[in-house]
Amino acid sequence: MTELTLIQGVNKALHQAMKNDPDVLCLGEDIGVNGGVFRATDGLQKEFGEQRVLDTPLNESGIVGMAVGMALYGLKPVAEIQFLDFIYPAFDQIVSELAKLRYRSGGQFPAHVVIRTPYGGGIRGGLYHSQSTEQLFASTPGLKVVIPSTPADAKGLLLTAIFDEDPVLFMEPKRIYRTATGEVPDGDHRVPFGKARIVREGTDVSVFAYGAMVPTAFQACQVLEKTGIHAELIDLRTLVPLDIDAVVRSVEKTGRAVIVHEAPKFCGFGAELAAILAEKALYSLKAPIARVTGYDTPFPYTLENLYLPSVDRIGRAIQRTVAAG
Amino acid sequence: MVEMQGPSLPDPELLKVLRTMALGRAVDERCMNLQRQGRLGFYVPLEGQEAAQVGCGWALEKGDWVCPAYRELAVALTRGVPLSLILNQLYGNVGDLSKGRQMPNHYGFRDYRFVSASSPIGTQIIHAVGLAYASRYKGEKVVAVPFFGDGATSSTDFHSGMNFAGVYKAPVVFFCQNNQWAISLPREKQTLSATLAVKANAYGFPGVQIDGNDFHAVYRAVREARARALRGEGPTLIEAVTYRMGPHSTSDDPRRYRTPAELAAWKARDPIERLKAELVSRGVLSEAEFEAMQEEVRAEIQSAILEAEKLGPPEASTIFEDVFQNPPPNLEEERREFEEFVKEGVVRP
């Protein structure tokens, strides 16, 4: 075990994967000599060479498309998109090609690519360095969507992603790249997909969060504990595949649900969670489901702290939900 | 344009080339009719592009990667894909390797390194660069060839592919069939560029424009580009100037946007007639032998069609397969519900 930050967990996973398997290659903008703008790939090119750690031209569609070609051959490419906000030129490659190749070829041409990308607000990044649009990808059949919230999960989920058989969008909560610290197992540590993590157990209300919202929601739960509200906090870890059982079981126990994410509320991932609970746990619910999310606006710069779900907003939603019935 | 240099291959091989071109043309004619009769859902013809497709395919070696668009039937034939597999894809039947998942003409044949085609334009161009890079990384002496049209040279991933291939000196042969029309948009409105080949200059590697209706010219240009790529000298863009004699697809009516005179002028340059005339004039083939060859391919197609039409649709439950290697619980739940519905007769496959 080693005490690491979340981004060090990412770096360790990449290092471990490249050491394990010569078919693992990394490609992206500024990832080689510079080690990535956030230093996620620091030291990799020096150790594994330019053939395996490729500095690419500035073209996201090219990065993902080239990774798809490498994967069609059978390599295990890990592409970095510098910010999720810049992924859209590659949307066609992700949605029309990567996610559909296995299906459209009848299983002849699976293309296993991992796309790593920092996402989310709270770093004074304005419109184009802050967004959370996981719902656009989670609704694409054929693509897995993974979002860690701790250094150990960053390492363990990324290693699972790289050696998985399906394409994975690996979204890294950049706001907590360096503030989230914790013990990380050494070596080839893997965390399975589709298994949510119970961050804290509780009996009064279930709080669902992922990525950078997990520590914020955790604080809110801790504060409310002092007022006698015992909130259960679930870190979803992987949106696709989703641990539906864990979500339903928790609400069957607590009878209440509060869903937290940074993305806008309308058609956000929380809508899917609420629909699942309506389908599978309606008769356990004692109160309406609450969603605490970013607003249905583009992402603001100066006022970002008002836009993002805060400890106080989450706390208020939990209190109301518990009081409602 | 590359000068005529006489035959590119020995005569017996040229007869096989001609037969493959004739087979491609004959499949085309039959499939257009099958679609009109309601027996095929849709079809994308290649008529007029036989020399470009067969010429390029013939110049490749086993192990080379083909990243096709959706008009590359004659490339598949040239690469040795059995006609039955091609027809099964067109019919989307139980014999279709892609399990009836795609519209006709979107072939994929793993055993032939013929990558599954999609409908978005140009996306396969950058895949070829990744395949070429990976092949070289693994020590294979092969090239990757993306096939695309004049319209695709305006697409995002034409640029991505050309730029990345140049930067990494990837062993790629970019094969552009400039067939003059991107549905209704003529070549001169696609770009102000004097030629498409000249676009390679900006990416730092050669571009050549060739007569795409001349089998020999196509074959030679691709051989040369392939050898250059494998010497480690990087990619080449080949612009094969040809003509789409038919509609864009069975859903298109080219009379809305081009003149009969233009079509007639290109029909006078028919690539099959051209190779045939050469072989006849050199005494390699007689008119009667060519007629016999045509009869033979038509008979081959007829029996293959009857076989393909005997096969039913894929199993209903295959709809849920191949989304993921390991399906998520929501998909499993949908599959279980579907199976219940089948049992209860709510859904009738």
Protein architecture, described:
The complex is a heterodimer of chains A (325) and B (349). Chain A is an alpha/beta fold. Chain A has helices at residues 6-20, 44-48, 60-73, 91-98, 101-104, 134-138, 151-162, 213-225, 244-254, 269-280, 304-307, 311-324; strands at 2-5, 24-28, 53-55, 76-80, 114-119, 144-146, 168-173, 181-184, 197-200, 205-209, 231-235, 238-240, 257-264, 290-294. A seven-stranded mixed beta sheet of chain A has the order 3-2-4-5-7-6-12, with helices on both faces. In chain A, α9 packs across α10. The N and C termini of chain A lie far apart (44 Å). Chain B folds into two domains: 11-314, Rossmann fold, CATH 3.40.50.970; 315-349, no CATH class. In chain B, the strands form two sheets. A five-stranded parallel beta sheet of chain B has the order 1-2-3-7-6, with helices on both faces. The mean pLDDT of chain B is 97.
Radius of gyration of chain A: 19 Å
Specify the structural class of chain A: alpha/beta
Shape designation of chain B: globular
Low-confidence stretches of chain B: none
Chain pair sharing the greatest interface: A-B, 49 and 49 residues
Note the overall shape of chain A.
Answer: globular
Percent of residues in helices of chain B: 40-55%
- Beta-strand content of chain A: 15-25%
Question: What distance lies between the first and last C-alpha atoms of chain A, to the nearest angstrom?
Answer: 44 Å
